Amino acid sequence: MNFSEGFKLSGLLCKFSPDGKRLASCVQYRLIVRDVNTLQILQLYTCLDQIQYVEWSSDSLFILCAMYKRGIVQVWSLEQPDWHCKIDEGSAGLVASCWSPDGRHILNTTEFHLRITVWSLCTKSVSYIKYPKACQQGIAFTKDGHYMALAERRDCKDFISLFVCSDWQLLRHFDTETQDLAGIEWAPNGCVLAVWDTCLEYKILLYSLDGRLLSTYRAYEWSLGIKSIAWSPSSQFLAIGSYDEKVRILNHVTWKKITEFEHPPIIANPKIIVYKEVEKSATVETQKLSFPPTRELASSLFSIPSKYDISQVPMSLQYIKPVADRANPRIGIGTLAFSPDNCFLATKNDNTPNAIWIWDIQKLKLFVVLEQLCTVNSFQWDPRQPRLAICTGNSKVYLWSPAGCVSVQVPMEGDFQVLSLCWHSGGDTMALLSKDNFCLCYLEREEVK
Amino acid sequence: MGDWKTITVPAPSSVLDSKNTSQYTSEKKMSPSSLNMQQVLRLPLPSSKSTHSFFSAFCTEENVEQSISYLNRELTTLGFPSLYAESKGKELNLISILNCMNELLVLQRKNLRAQEDVEMQHLKLGSDMDHLQNCYAKLKEQLEASKREIVGLQERDRQLQCKNRNLHQLLKNEKDEVQKLQNIIASRATQYNHDMKRKEREYNKLKERLHQLVMNKKDKKIAMEVLNYVGRVDGKRGGWRTDKTEARNEEEMYKALLRDYEQCQKQLLVENAELRKVLQQMKKEIISLLPPQKQKPRERSEDGIGPVLSDLEDDVGELNKENMWELSCETVREQLTNSIRNQWRMLKNHVEKLDNQVSRVHSGALTDKDVISREDHELETEKLELEIQHCKEMIKTQQQLLQQQLMSPCDDDTTVLLQDCYLLEERERLQEEWKLFREQKKNFEKERRSFTEAAIRLGLERQAFEEDRGTWLKQQFLSMTCDSKYLENVKTQSATSGSSDQDNHLMNTRSQQKKPRSLSSVPTSAELCQTIQHTPYSSSPCAISNKTTEESKPNQWEEIYREETE
């Protein structure tokens, strides 16, 4: 496992290009494009304001930089560094901006979600979509990029509009039986759209591509409902995480629940492996102390190395009782992710924020529980193999695979707190992002022991 | 002093009457009557006759003095004054007698009254007792009734307490649920409030922006500045949106959906086929596991496996055929699942039966001779193992010995001896074989001799037979021609030589004539046998085989040979 040196970063804006050759990072108002392998700066662009959002186009030829305060989106070309494009939303304001799947249209969501403007880079045409819904996930593109689903709200009712991305034709427009739509997501096969309701109501609706309602699922009434959902890569399963600390899995044939995963704070089943991160007692060898302290020594002095121990079952996890009278309480399953080979599901229960639960989907049973010393910030599966990378806000990155798990200290100068990470599409490289810096981590094959 | 015998004394119940009668009796007679009275009182139910006799029984004309003295004695002991005038003498004091009588009467009356009183009291007590007994019985009943009531009330009390507890529990549950609902309501309320506040903030911002816009004269232009337009991804120019494009889009969408469904269906079909295959395999295996029908007719009668299995096997055949064509109709599916279910049930029954058998065997009762108990089985296996070990040891020792003998470096004598003993063994064996061989040789010699003798005999017989035949033929011929001279000639010729030349000659002579066709019919075997037995042949045994070429008499020849050898 090799680590590159650190580079400056702001706003956790660091993205790999879809073709995997380039890496874009932002420092204040500058956009830096590097080569992934050599990390040499290929391009440097300067924007008008502090960049708040960066996105590559799907063909990796263009990058958009959105500046919400100014209401401007600037698009840069990699082939022609002189090419420039500036989209000014003016008084309409800007809250969100994204590419269309063909890489030639930009969808800007104006302030107050008044409308979505579709700017075309090929033609002079502009399209407006009225009444978009201001929710967590209002726009969803199919994986193949042919269709776009948009959540709308008119007259206190929720609607879904399906657009054909090639010519922006409205394909279908139908209303949904939701109180207050919270999000939509396409299945990876592009034929089913999952629509879920606000957290006050546990309801998830499944619509077919042509707008028919396939099925409705309600697990219970009155208590807080769905917090997060995830489709399995083969579209066979839909995992729904809810506030009652359970994940329910629906199958694609009958759209009925096939199983329920519970996340109790006490793990009693002896067949489950629990990896607990423990601190290794740092033995500083006095002979090796030198002045000025080397980088490795410095980092080792500042951070205590840790390793994973297999805990004896039964064991109890650190459980946090949430404050009862706050809205959006930190309970329930907040994050779900399927592994790319469809074999594992990683979940995080916000009641036990230090733990990550890994479920074996083939057997529909709990497989492994990882308990960290700090709260888990984010985790992401390797896009090629069942390998999970976890960061908890300290200077270590953790990797788990069915072969085992490892805790790696990031050898960076100073205080490098890994706040986020993202994988390269090839699966062997990872970008670790902290508040001010980022570094790349190159993994060898069969890295995890 | 008259005799009052005639006075009849009434029954003791009418005491007064007796008293009256006693008054009229004389003083002499008084005592017996009073005595009688006393006696009457003592006695239970004396009859009138007996009292009557008592009256006269005590005192008669003879024992007056004695009775007086007796009475006096009695009275004095009772405390009465004496009857006599003086302490001694026989003069009776009339006054004292009368006083005594009076006293006695008074006493009697008192006693009677006392008796009456006592009887009255007795009666009263009796009635009181009855009354008390009745009261007691009633009270007992009441007590029982009240006890039962108490038990009933206790039971009711218990039930009510139970109910009370249940209601308390229900109340608690309801309270909990109410609390939970209240919590839910509270959280929903906070969520609503939060959302409401957010919305209000947004609304306010909107109002401000609107205000700003209204006030703001200079409008920021909404525009896009681009150096040059970029080409489309696919290089083509953009097209107008028309109905055709709309229709095309719809078509594309439906195609995508259909593709997905078809893929799904394909997967399901494949899965289905696999599962069906697995079921078929399972069915076959289950059928093979189940005991075959022929060997156990008992089981067939018990479980009815037989007819069902045969039906199922028919079904299996049918289903196999059908599945080959990959029909997936409802009936086939049902048949398959039903048959699998039936067979599984049968297998289960079979296994249960086996379990029962095993458990029975463990408890000691062996009902089925085919089933060997585990202990016996184990014993057998142990025995077999021991045997195997023994054999192995034996083989080892023998091998060792063999090795020793082959490779042991011992001195010449011993080797010679050893060799000798080998040779001895071999010699003995050879001798035995020689003996056998010689015996066999002897036997063979005997047989050969007998064969040669038989052959010689046979040759002689053959010769005789030939001679006989020749003579017989001659006779025939001669008889046919009716020429006696010729017959004699022939006879003389046959007497000198009996070889085959004669036969040939005879044949020649016979062939000249055509008549003997009817006579050339084979003579009866019996005649021939008789004639031939008397005429043995002298030809060598080797010639026998040659002579058998004569066709007309092969059967008889064999018969003759057999007769000879027997």
TrEMBL record, chain A:
One of its GO terms (cellular component) is MWP complex. Pfam families: WD40. It comes from the Eukaryota. PANTHER family: WD REPEAT PROTEIN 8-RELATED, WD REPEAT-CONTAINING PROTEIN WRAP73. This is WD repeat-containing protein WRAP73 isoform X1. It comes from Alligator sinensis (Chinese alligator). The lineage of its organism: Eukaryota, Metazoa, Chordata, Craniata, Vertebrata.
UniProtKB/TrEMBL annotation, chain B:
It comes from Alligator sinensis. InterPro entries: Adhesion_Centrosome_assoc, Afadin/alpha-actinin-bd. Its main location: other. Residues 129-216, 247-285 form a coiled coil. GO terms for cellular component: adherens junction; centriolar satellite; ciliary basal body. Residues 493-511, 518-547 have a biased composition (Polar residues). This is Afadin- and alpha-actinin-binding protein isoform X1. It is found in: Cell junction, Adherens junction; Cytoplasm, Cytoskeleton, Microtubule organizing center, Centrosome, Centriolar satellite. It comes from the Eukaryota. One of its GO terms (biological process) is cell adhesion. Belongs to the ADIP family. Keywords: Cell adhesion, Cell junction, Coiled coil, Cytoplasm, Cytoskeleton.
